[in-house]
Amino acid sequence: MEDSIVQLAYSLDTFYFLISGALVMWMAAGFAMLEAGLVRAKNTAEILTKNVALYSIASIMYMVIGYGIMYPAGGNGVIPQINWSFMFGGDNSVEDVLASDGDIYYSGMSDFFFQVVFVATAMSIVSGAVAERMKLWAFLLFAVIMTGFIYPVQGYWKWGGGWLDGLGFNDFAGSGIVHLAGASAALAGVLLLGARKGKYGKDGSINAIPGANLPLATLGTFILWLGWFGFNGGSQLVVSNISDANSVAAVFVNTNMAAAGGLVLALITARLLFGKADLTMALNGALAGLVAITAEPLTPSPLAATLIGGVGGVIVVFAILSLDKLRVDDPVGAISVHGVVGMWGLMAVPITNTDATFGAQAIGLGAILAWVFITSFIVWLLIKLIMGIRVSEEEEYEGVDVGECGLEAYPEFVGARGAGK
């Protein structure tokens, strides 16, 4: 009887893990639609190419080396001892998992699948920030290094049992490890890349460059919102007992409430600042709420989760405006949503989680930011020196769809090419 219960728990938790991973994988579609909606029509095919390609690259690189770095055979807490066994089919049987840890009842393969979609999420954040002026192959080359090395190292520091985990740093589902990491890599690239032509005037003016398809951006936001239930809910890891099942339910509720709070307060903030209901700010507000609650979606009450997400929604509006004033051109607001609000999410953890401390959270925040930004800056710089990272002025004017992909997403729209210079 006991063996039957164990087998049932194993099957249920493995299925739960796989479905959660599938929901997170669907977030790749959300990022693709969001970014495609917020760039100009002449750059749509290229941004879609980046999103499908980066997901595939992340899957391969995390299999080859990333997973072995993040969950190593050993290490000193800072530098991991790479575990190569997964690539060759190791650690994926029922016996292996149950023998190594009797409290974890899920397949090793399901764990890899759940982790790999998180890697792709971090890389998707970079895609939108460098949109409309970066060379496609330079971006994809960076994706190889980011997903295979940069992301897994800082992931090991916490989720792989490294020094941040020993320090008491808390990051339930990745406000820092996924979202701040992706934003830090994006910021490094944007600083070396420069702004889009026409975005900032010599007189200090800031010129809005509207996206081509706000319905598509809205659809992308709803897809991301849905996928986040797997992102945060799956991070509870198991669901086969009453306590964990209740925890998963609480995480789902708090994730939803934080998104709602973020959207409403971002919309109100935009109305107070601009006198209009700004849809793009509302969409980013929902995403900001989701990022904010990701570091700790379990311990807050539903009201507290709404407020944590709401603060994220307010922060993201001011962050987007501030980066524009600093002439940091981020077409989709990714650095603000995932980076600035990711920091808020990490520092908000001790408000509701008494096991967390502000000191440990600040150290973890600084470590992730420093590691990913510095290593990414070096990699971006090397790529810039070797092959260049920015398309020519003519390609930017015509649209990177034609220059990089040889086709247009909306070929029937005469005059779309070059529009919005």
Question: Any overview of this molecule?
Answer:
The chain is an all-alpha fold and 421 residues long. Helices cover 70% and strands 1% of the residues. It has 15 helices and two strands. Strands 1-2 form a two-stranded antiparallel ribbon. Strand 1 (74-75) and strand 2 (80-81) form a beta hairpin. Helix 10 packs across helix 11 (302-325) and helix 12 runs antiparallel to helix 13 (358-386). It is globular and about 70 Å long. It starts with a helix and ends in a 16-residue tail after the last helix. Residues 416-421 have low confidence and may be disordered.
**Helical/strand content category:** mainly alpha
Give the overall silhouette: globular
Q: How would you write the strand order of the largest sheet? A: 1-2
Compute the number of strand runs. 2
Radius of gyration: 21 Å
Q: Work out the helicity level.
A: 55-70%
- Specify the number of helices: 15
| Average pLDDT metric | 92
Residue share in β-strands: under 5%
Uncertain spans, ≥5 residues at pLDDT below 50?
A: 416-421
Q: SSE order, as H and E?
A: HHEEHHHHHHHHHHHHH
Q: What is the first-to-last residue Cα distance?
A: 70 Å
Q: Main sheet?
A: 2 strands, antiparallel
